[in-house]
Write a structure and sequence with these properties.
This protein is an alpha/beta fold and about 130 residues long. Helices cover about 35% and strands about 25% of the residues. A five-stranded mixed β-sheet has the order 3-2-1-5-4. α2 links the parallel β2 and β3. α1 packs across α2. The model has no long low-confidence stretch (mean pLDDT about 95).
């Protein structure tokens, strides 16, 4: 699971570059691109998902907030704007579901952040 945080107007190139870099460094391949609902209309995210051949999972703010205690990074901008320590880490963890852990904490790219997570335990609850 690749969780994404970004600024408005993000380019697909920047997202693709960072996700590819993160996957290579971690030695894993993401199966889904998890994004916050407040960025779901960003054309750059949709294009990046298409270019990466990944489905998009849109996550609402409530579920992102429920995973904040597991985030290891803190972004002052994300905290001010959305009340989240790390949008990318929250998206990765929430997108991967219950029983998930961070494989790679948030990394910064050009106007985008990415974190990778994986579900360790199948709980029967895919939320």
């Amino acid at each position: 699971m690749a969780g994404i945080g970004c600024r408005p107007g993000i380019s697909a190139d920047n997202v693709v570059e960072l996700v590819a870099q993160m996957q290579q460094q971690a030695g894993v391949s993401a199966n889904v691109l998890a994004i916050p609902a407040f960025r779901q209309e960003e054309p750059g995210l949709a294009e990046a998902a298409e270019r990466l051949s990944l489905p998009v999972r849109v996550l609402d703010l409530e579920i992102l907030r429920s995973r904040q205690g597991e985030c290891v990074s803190v972004s002052d901008a994300a905290r001010k704007a959305h009340g989240l320590a790390s949008v990318a880490e929250a998206c990765a963890l929430a997108g991967a579901g219950k029983g998930s852990i961070l494989l790679a904490p948030r990394e910064k790219g050009r106007d985008v952040t990415c974190a990778l997570a994986k579900r360790l335990v199948r709980t029967g609850d895919e939320s």
